[in-house]
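Case study: FMN reductase.
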Amino acid sequence: MKYLAIVGTNSDVSTNRMLLQYMQKYFANEAEIEVYEIKELPAFMEPEDFEIPEKVAELSDKILKADGVIIATPEYDHAIPAVLKSALEWISYTSQALTDKPVLIVGASHGTLGSSRAQAHLRQILDSPELAARIMPSSEFLLGKSQGAFDSSGNLIYLDKVSELEEIFREFVLFTDITTKLLKDKVLNKKVTKYTWQE
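Here is what the predicted structure looks like once written out:
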């Protein structure tokens, strides 16, 4: 499996980035995981010249080529960061590359509850008609107290969370495989030639 792992923040120091980097290393023998930064994407707006920014096109291409997507989100005021919402708006209004794409949501936060509210918020967004991602059901990986969760080498030191992450990730690999097979013969009605602002 080939996964695109999106760091859902523009912060230079982030335990969500560390979580994805840990997954990339820990599951290297089971899947290829590319950690991707969205902090260089422009804020969403309908471009006057109808030209899609290069970074947005790059993200769309990477999503389309991946078997699935992993999104790590922190929680800001009970919601996902503005930079992640903006990235998803670009995808929604342009390529709609997340349509039917298997998605796993994970998250880390400094508090005890992990990013539970942000993850619920992200599920609602990904389930919207213009995104229509295939979100893995009944799965939450909530890494609380994340400031003390990693050692100096970037390894996750909470053993119960390592076991939980192993189970969730292997379920996601299976979910990706099943979803891909189910959708193999489906004709997707994507707006690939006209974007929303051109209609």
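For the exam, be able to explain this: The two ends are 36 Å apart (CA to CA).
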